[in-house]
């Protein structure tokens, strides 16, 4: 008897919400951007794949999980799996894709930093953006043998905040 009462309450609440908005979701939201949706799905797949390499050691010049990765080798390897051909070095990756304003960065965009000397403004580090918040970006990357290999960081960390260069969109739909 309780189940029947519960079922009736659920049905009536659904009917009430249907009466308030009788249009299906595709009519009530006519601005679905299929290219944007495809890009988001691809970005999620790229990040899920990138996460599988957490802990793979940093190796200067490395570009495979068997031998280890450096930052640009990690980016190169991950995106290549999804048919996105990027150059091998962070300096070359700085010219890949299109520049995106900081405020429009999305999951799957690449974030670039200078090398250890920010004064020179020369690209020297790269990661994949996971999310954006009011203070910057969370991103996955590999930085040095001391950091434990592939891991997640935030751009507000002093070592990255001072060295931020640009965000680039390399996923095209």
Features:
endopeptidase fold (from Nostoc punctiforme), 24% strand, 8 strands, 173 residues, 34% helix
Describe it for me?
- This protein has 173 residues and is of the alpha+beta class.
- The protein has one domain: endopeptidase fold (from Nostoc punctiforme) (Alpha-Beta Complex), CATH 3.90.1720.
- The protein has 6 helices and 8 strands.
- The chain has helices at residues 2-20, 25-28, 34-51, 71-80, 90-93, 158-161, and strands at residues 63-64, 68-69, 98-100, 110-114, 123-133, 136-142, 150-154, 164-169.
- The strands form 2 sheets. A 6-stranded antiparallel β-sheet has the order 3-8-4-5-6-7.
- Strand 5 (123-133) and strand 6 (136-142) form a beta hairpin.
- The radius of gyration is 21 Å and the shape is globular.
- The relative contact order is 0.16.
Please provide a brief summary of the model.
The protein has 173 residues and is an alpha+beta fold. It has helices spanning 2-20, 25-28, 34-51, 71-80, 90-93, 158-161, and strands at residues 63-64, 68-69, 98-100, 110-114, 123-133, 136-142, 150-154, 164-169.
């Amino acid at each position: 008897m309780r189940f029947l009462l519960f079922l009736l309450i659920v049905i009536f609440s659904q009917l009430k919400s249907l009466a308030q908005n009788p249009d299906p979701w595709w009519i009530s939201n006519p601005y679905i951007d299929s290219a944007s949706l495809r890009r988001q799905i691809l970005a999620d797949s790229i990040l899920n794949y990138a996460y599988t390499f957490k802990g793979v050691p940093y190796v200067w010049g490395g570009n495979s999980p068997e031998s280890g990765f450096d930052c640009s080798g990690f980016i190169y390897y991950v995106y290549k799996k999804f048919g996105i051909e990027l150059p091998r070095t962070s300096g070359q990756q700085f010219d890949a894709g299109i520049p995106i304003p900081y405020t429009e960065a999305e999951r799957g965009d690449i974030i670039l930093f200078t090398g250890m000397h920010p004064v020179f403004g020369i690209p020297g580090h790269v990661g994949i953006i996971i999310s954006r918040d009011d203070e910057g970006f969370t991103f996955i990357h590999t930085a040095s043998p001391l950091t434990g290999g592939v891991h997640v960081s935030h751009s507000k960390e002093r070592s990255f905040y001072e060295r931020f260069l640009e965000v680039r969109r390399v996923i095209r739909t």
